[in-house]
Amino acid sequence: MEAQKLDKEISDKISFIAFIVPFFAETYKMNMQRAFFYLKKYGAWDYLNRHWWALHTDSAEYAAKDLYEYCYENGGLR
């Protein structure tokens, strides 16, 4: 039973990340590769992987803005 729960959580995490990164790219007018490297460079990729559960409970707009703000606080451009 525990393995099924873990599999579901991993599946949910992958689904959310697969949704939010393209949404972030579209929102901030980036292609997918640039969005990924932007998130990675400014620490938001790790933030996303650690806090995806909380981010997925908000609207997509808020989650993308939160990631962008996280990048900005860590040296990303406005």
SSE layout and pairing:
Layout: H1 2-27, H2 32-41, H3 44-55, H4 60-73
Question: What would you report as the Rg, rounded to the nearest angstrom?
Answer: 13 Å
**What is the multimeric organization of the chains shown?**
single chain
Q: Number of DSSP helices?
A: 4
Give the overall pLDDT as a whole number. 94
Query: Helical proportion?
Result: over 70%
Biggest sheet statistics: none
Distance between the termini: 46 Å
Question: Helices and strands, in N-to-C order?
Answer: HHHH
How would you explain this protein's 3D organization?
The protein is an all-alpha fold. The protein has one domain. The protein is 79% helix and 0% strand. The chain has 4 helices and no strands. Helix 1 (2-27) packs across helix 4 (60-73) and helix 3 (44-55) runs antiparallel to helix 4 (60-73).
Briefly, what is this?
With 78 residues, this protein is mainly alpha-helical. 79% of the residues lie in helices and 0% in strands.
What attributes characterize this protein structure?
78 residues; elongated; mainly alpha; 4 helices
